[in-house]
Amino acid sequence: MKHFKTLSSFIEYMELPLPEHPMFSVYAAHDDSVLPCPKESSPPITNDCYSISLKKVIKGDLNYGRTTYDFTNGALIFIAPRQVLQWDSSVLFEQKGFSINFHEDFLKGTELATQIKKYSFFSYSVNESLHLSPKEEKQIESIVQNIEIEYQNNQDEFSKDIIISQLSTLLKYANRFYERQFLNRKELSNDLLERFNYELSNYFESGELSEKGIPSIEQIASSLSVSQRYLSDTLKKETGKTSTEHLQLHLIDKAKDILLQPHKTISEVAYELGFEYPHYFSRLFKKKEGISPSKYIEKYKMN
């Protein structure tokens, strides 16, 4: 399964114009202009980016994880990093709407980095898109227009904060609109990936990581009432990554937030994440991200 680590590589694969920013892009159709079409078809792919799109679909289905994404004209679609996408030539888009794509690292060091993980509409368990009323669509499009204006301007030290603020506002409105859409329906999900992520998030947020160390896959599988092999095989089939790889991704994601906190040494970060030896943490981080923790701090604290 092909995986794209950078926004630029994903955008290039989608045959869209390269982004103005290495970790953020927005495309919107105005008046007589049209939204660039994505690739006509694609085998299963994953990437490290978030996507928020207003898609007007004429026909066809988009496979999202192991389900078919239910969306129609004037619907918002939310896709999180490392979730499997696949579509074929039967999908036909009307060339209107907008598409916002940003690398998960674009949010690092911001409050939105934590908030965005709490929005259930980025989850596999929600296989319905957000169907907007005409009034709601206008509200969302006005926010996207503000984002696009800032994106197209000569970017300065304030640009990222302004874009992040507008993204946060967009997601809050989307959350309100989803509550309206699903007011009389209870969400039920037996999806193993969802429960696995929930289990890890609870463990990380409870403080057990620094107290008890990194949980074993056997421990997580036991808490989910499945075998270790079944857990890994199921996650591999659904996402292209094993349970160990998912655990490492959670650790690296948590590490990025902590590394950007002031007055934290790399050793302190490693111990806080449950690593017995700091050099094990540094080695894993560099393997997954391509740069050392210290280089990561230098790179993103300048933004």
UniProtKB/TrEMBL annotation:
Pfam families associated with the record: HTH_18
Which residues are in coiled coils? Answer: none
User: Where in the numbering of this chain does the HTH araC/xylS-type domain appear?
Assistant: 198-299
What keywords would UniProt list here? DNA-binding, Transcription, Transcription regulation
User: DNA-binding among the record's keywords?
Assistant: yes
Q: Which domain of life is it from?
A: Bacteria
Give yes or no: UniProt keyword DNA-binding: yes
> PANTHER family in the record, alphabetically?
ARAC-FAMILY TRANSCRIPTIONAL REGULATOR (PTHR43280), TRANSCRIPTIONAL REGULATORY PROTEIN (PTHR43280:SF32)
Name of the protein in question: Helix-turn-helix transcriptional regulator
Q: What is the native source organism of this protein?
A: Nonlabens mediterrranea
Q: What is the lineage of its organism?
A: Bacteria, Pseudomonadati, Bacteroidota, Flavobacteriia, Flavobacteriales
